[in-house]
Model the fold of this input.
Amino acid sequence: MRYLPKSDSDRHQMLQEIGVPDTDALFSHIPAEYRLKRDLKVPRQMGESEIVDYFRARSSEMVAGYGIMLGAGVYYHYRPVVIDAVVSRGEFLTSYTPYQAEITQGTLQAIFEFQTMICELTGMEVSNASLYDGSTGVAEAAMMAVRVTGRSETVIARSVHPEYREVLRTYSQHQGMPIHEVDFSEHGRVDLKALDAAITDQTACVLIQSPNFFGTIEDVAAIAEIAHKKGALLIVSIAEALSLGIVKPPVEADIVTMEAQSFGVAPSFGGPHVGVLATRERFVRQMPGRLVGQTVDKQGKRGFVLTLSTREQHIRREKATSNICTNQGLVALMATVYMELMGREGLKELAIQNLAKTNYAVEQFGKNAKVLFPGSPRFNEFVIQSGVDPLEISCKLAGQKIVGGLPLKKFYPELGNASLWCCTEMVSKEQIDAAAKAVAQ
Amino acid sequence: MNEHIKKVRQNTSQNEGLIFERSSPGKRGYRLAPLDVPEVDPAQLLGNAVREDLGNMPEVSEFEVLRHFTRLSTWNYAIDLGMYPLGSCTMKYNPRVNEAVARMEGIANAHPYLPEALAQGTLRIMRDLSDALIEITGMDAITLQPAAGAHGEMTGIMMVRAYFDSKKERRKKILIPDSAHGTNPATAAICGFEVENLRSNHRGMVDVSALASQMSGDIAALMLTNPNTLGIFEEDIHKIADLMHEKGGLLYMDGANMNALVGKVRPGDFGVDVMHLNLHKTFSTPHGGGGPGSGPVAIKKVLEPFLPTPVIYSKQDGTLALDYDRPQSIGRVKAFYGNFGMFVRALAYILANGPDGLRQTTEDAVMNANYIRKKLEGSYDLPYQAPSMHEVVFSHRLQSPKGVKTGDIAKRLIDYGFHPYTTAFPLIVADHGAIMIEPTESEPKEELDLFIDAMRNIAKEAQESPETILNAPHLARVERLDEVTANRKPVLRWKKP
Done:
């Protein structure tokens, strides 16, 4: 086996030094009835070229080279090649969680830069080193709000990603954390009156997403006022991180939880992506996940360490702020490289391109179908209502190498034949025109 | 003081500041394609939601970014540089073909909401990996959704909870041995269970008589790591499973140490009802400086109705599809289907090994640990004498009279060119002095011999010149860092001076 660096004579010599006759002797203390006496039924050992062939065949069953107009929490943005050049370095790829600070300063400094940029972009004061993704970030943020306020309930907008809400429900079901959902208005934004009515003196947090699942930007300031008036925290979830290039950050929030997949991370059929949680300095000791802090060594040289670990499970055990341990290290590094390459100007320029493509698409689609939630500001997604089932439109477009929008019936049956479309910089004008035409037929 | 160091010699490394300290207006690391649709006025489209500027985000050129990270990378230790004897972490070789296939366009660019007809390739990868993992564990079904080991634990224990809820039984407690990883009790708490501690016996194994007296109708499950965190196989595992099952409880296995079992023993065969795997340990997906992980949960038939949604299935025409209609499901634990990119890598690893390679891998991993045990016995105290599987746990009892603790020995290993072993647990080793070593199968004899030589030298130093160890590391880029100040006055981000 080519990954195993031993010759038979190495093995023979080592067994001799251990003082056992053969390998089986090393397993002889395991009760015999549990020892497997046959080969595992898995495919036979393959050569590297065969492995490549297997995955090439799987890859060819997918839609390489298509124009993708799906968003809904996973976005097609261009990934600069420098990202993979960096994360393919074995020193990053094959390093462990940086508990041993003296020999992991590279990873630690990169995370410190990640935390800094997340703060700059979100308007928050502190950020953690990452969480699994945007969906679990929502659950972790709600649990954190419960710890901070000593209250138990969460009021969440129905315009938050439906799968994020499902994850919150799963996490909260055994923790005495009731969840209340608040509907959206005809503008595709949180119904403020309903929100106001839903908040009680037991509400730990109001949880919204902006841009929300429909691509619409919420009135964060107004929602913050309603939440804060009743002593609840405001949590803002961001699924499309690139929006922060041109959309005002939710500075009124107490906790921001974000999915940063848009920052140079491949869609990869839904993961690994990278969640992150940012908040106010005064809540730092209630945050979940790892944190990197700056300090000095004995010579006074700047260095970085994992810090505030008394919040974490290896010390606090059942009283920890979260059970999260391994998180999304390398994916956070991808996002770090991306944010540094694009920087202050690039993120803005790219966000404006997304805005322009989407604005153009809304105009074109609007000629042939009803675009829902008019009048509300949006980033790079929009919802249309068509005469026919959106799946029919998708089938038509597949022939033109375009993947159409996401049918919403499963999540929002009341919206009928609605579908959610996304236009990033990767979708061409021709593809938008073709899709707008298909919607009409 | 460093004449015995054989594996490494000192080397210069480049200094590199924070990227923000290189930033200056006008530098750029990107160039976009020209816009092919009419330009827009963001202020007009977004109204008062428009952003004015991006604060102190950096402005640097592409080459500066590349050089920045290349320099930072040289400050890291990594498996690619040498042995990582971290116990219970399984730091093995991360094959590069895994990385290549995960980046194939159809795979890397697959959107999770592609219509099923256009996603047969990725669904097939999930199915093939699921089948292989079910066979390897000896279980009946699996979910790949959890994003890491701790997430898998949560998923598994929630399924345990749902199982008892479905039978209208309200069991309040989870039993956890004192040798367990800290994520186990944290997980039980999230699932609304109380934690009851289970003592280990003098051999470092579950005390079966204690279990017999503690097990009751109030206990939902026992969370067991097998081999346990001392690297010891629970020889009474069948009695343990029987004791749990007799009183209607379930046996959960933390699969962190599965690298000791693959191809040799199957947890499903010795009575485990639910377990998680760590693809980033046993199945060679990279640790990446702290993730991404992947923590599939394999289960016995009785738990199948409670699997997270969606579940993959074959349609009559042979194509694959996702089933969302599962009324007894615990719900979703993550958006989409899990850390799919890790599934690709784990499957590539299994295909590269085949049944013979997987078995040989386990045998080599166990042999390497036993070789280290044999060679270090005498230099270090071995608190538990039971046979070792893939890892061996010593203690610092012979060194601590000189004031040298496990953490100090670990830091001194850095000077010898090795990553430290695990020091933080298991907590049952006397006064927390654990020296927990897991070499994995990936180490050639030469590297093991260098490691043994380093550990023996450090043992000698502990007697002759303990201060050398207490101030280690001496040869790293930075000396021991001031963690107390970092903790007391946290500086968690750069700020413009």
About this structure: The CA atoms of residues 358 and 423 of chain A lie 5 Å apart. Chain A touches chain B through 197 residues (CB under 8 Å). Chain A has 13 helices and 15 strands. The first helix of chain A runs from residue 8 to 18.
